[in-house]
Amino acid sequence: VRLVESGGGLVPPGGSLRLSCKASGFIIDTSVMSWHRQRPGKAREQVAFIMDAGVHAGYSASVRGRFTISRDDAADTVYLQMNSLKDEDTGVYYCKASRPSGGDVWGQGTQVTITS
Fold this sequence. Notes:
With 116 residues, the protein is an all-beta fold. The chain has strands spanning 2-6, 9-11, 17-24, 32-38, 45-51, 56-59, 67-72, 77-82, 91-98, 104-106, 110-114.
Protein backbone atom coordinates (compact mmCIF):
# COMPACT_ATOMS: atom_id res chain seq x y z
CA VAL A 1 0.00 0.00 0.00
CA ARG A 2 1.69 3.17 -1.13
CA LEU A 3 1.41 6.50 -2.90
CA VAL A 4 4.13 7.84 -5.17
CA GLU A 5 4.25 11.49 -6.15
CA SER A 6 6.03 12.85 -9.20
CA GLY A 7 6.24 16.01 -11.26
CA GLY A 8 8.04 18.34 -8.90
CA GLY A 9 10.92 20.52 -10.03
CA LEU A 10 12.29 24.04 -10.41
CA VAL A 11 10.22 26.66 -12.17
CA PRO A 12 10.33 30.47 -12.34
CA PRO A 13 7.63 32.63 -10.77
CA GLY A 14 4.53 32.59 -12.90
CA GLY A 15 5.30 29.12 -14.19
CA SER A 16 3.28 25.90 -13.99
CA LEU A 17 3.77 22.36 -12.79
CA ARG A 18 1.56 19.29 -12.77
CA LEU A 19 2.03 16.89 -9.90
CA SER A 20 0.88 13.28 -10.08
CA CYS A 21 0.17 10.81 -7.30
CA LYS A 22 -0.13 7.14 -8.20
CA ALA A 23 -1.57 4.63 -5.77
CA SER A 24 -0.52 1.00 -5.63
CA GLY A 25 -1.77 -1.82 -3.44
CA PHE A 26 -5.23 -0.27 -3.09
CA ILE A 27 -7.82 1.51 -5.18
CA ILE A 28 -8.62 5.15 -4.56
CA ASP A 29 -12.21 5.36 -5.72
CA THR A 30 -13.69 5.46 -2.21
CA SER A 31 -10.90 7.53 -0.69
CA VAL A 32 -10.78 11.24 -0.09
CA MET A 33 -7.60 12.30 -1.83
CA SER A 34 -5.72 15.42 -0.85
CA TRP A 35 -2.54 17.34 -1.49
CA HIS A 36 -0.54 18.88 1.30
CA ARG A 37 2.63 20.88 1.38
CA GLN A 38 5.32 21.76 3.84
CA ARG A 39 7.03 25.03 3.18
CA PRO A 40 10.46 25.77 4.70
CA GLY A 41 10.09 26.48 8.40
CA LYS A 42 6.31 25.95 8.31
CA ALA A 43 3.95 23.20 9.43
CA ARG A 44 2.46 20.87 6.86
CA GLU A 45 -0.80 22.26 5.44
CA GLN A 46 -3.55 20.90 3.23
CA VAL A 47 -3.90 22.77 -0.06
CA ALA A 48 -6.58 20.77 -1.88
CA PHE A 49 -8.87 17.79 -1.54
CA ILE A 50 -11.17 15.88 -3.87
CA MET A 51 -13.87 13.32 -3.19
CA ASP A 52 -17.02 11.71 -4.57
CA ALA A 53 -15.47 10.88 -7.93
CA GLY A 54 -14.41 14.47 -8.32
CA VAL A 55 -17.80 16.03 -7.65
CA HIS A 56 -16.53 17.78 -4.57
CA ALA A 57 -13.21 19.57 -4.29
CA GLY A 58 -11.84 22.29 -2.07
CA TYR A 59 -8.79 24.52 -1.83
CA SER A 60 -6.96 26.58 0.73
CA ALA A 61 -7.28 30.31 0.32
CA SER A 62 -3.61 30.61 -0.65
CA VAL A 63 -3.98 28.45 -3.79
CA ARG A 64 -7.64 28.88 -4.78
CA GLY A 65 -7.92 30.03 -8.36
CA ARG A 66 -4.37 28.92 -9.22
CA PHE A 67 -4.33 25.19 -8.39
CA THR A 68 -6.69 22.51 -9.66
CA ILE A 69 -6.99 19.03 -8.20
CA SER A 70 -8.34 16.18 -10.29
CA ARG A 71 -8.51 12.42 -10.13
CA ASP A 72 -8.58 9.47 -12.50
CA ASP A 73 -9.98 6.64 -10.45
CA ALA A 74 -9.52 4.15 -13.27
CA ALA A 75 -5.79 4.87 -13.13
CA ASP A 76 -5.69 5.26 -9.33
CA THR A 77 -4.03 8.62 -9.85
CA VAL A 78 -4.60 12.11 -8.50
CA TYR A 79 -3.21 15.27 -10.04
CA LEU A 80 -2.48 18.79 -8.91
CA GLN A 81 -2.21 21.36 -11.68
CA MET A 82 -0.38 24.39 -10.33
CA ASN A 83 -0.41 27.64 -12.31
CA SER A 84 0.82 31.16 -11.63
CA LEU A 85 3.34 29.79 -9.17
CA LYS A 86 4.77 32.12 -6.55
CA ASP A 87 7.91 32.05 -4.43
CA GLU A 88 5.78 31.11 -1.44
CA ASP A 89 4.61 27.93 -3.16
CA THR A 90 8.08 26.45 -2.66
CA GLY A 91 7.99 23.35 -0.52
CA VAL A 92 7.59 19.61 -0.42
CA TYR A 93 4.22 18.45 -1.73
CA TYR A 94 2.62 15.31 -0.36
CA CYS A 95 -0.31 13.24 -1.51
CA LYS A 96 -2.63 11.59 1.03
CA ALA A 97 -5.39 9.02 0.79
CA SER A 98 -7.99 8.95 3.55
CA ARG A 99 -9.59 5.55 3.22
CA PRO A 100 -13.09 4.72 4.49
CA SER A 101 -11.77 1.47 5.94
CA GLY A 102 -9.48 3.53 8.13
CA GLY A 103 -5.86 4.40 7.92
CA ASP A 104 -4.35 7.26 6.01
CA VAL A 105 -1.70 6.64 3.39
CA TRP A 106 0.92 9.31 2.66
CA GLY A 107 3.34 9.59 -0.21
CA GLN A 108 7.00 10.37 0.21
CA GLY A 109 6.70 13.89 -1.18
CA THR A 110 8.01 15.75 -4.20
CA GLN A 111 10.01 18.99 -4.07
CA VAL A 112 8.65 22.09 -5.76
CA THR A 113 10.99 25.06 -5.97
CA ILE A 114 10.02 28.43 -7.40
CA THR A 115 13.09 30.38 -8.30
CA SER A 116 14.15 32.98 -10.81
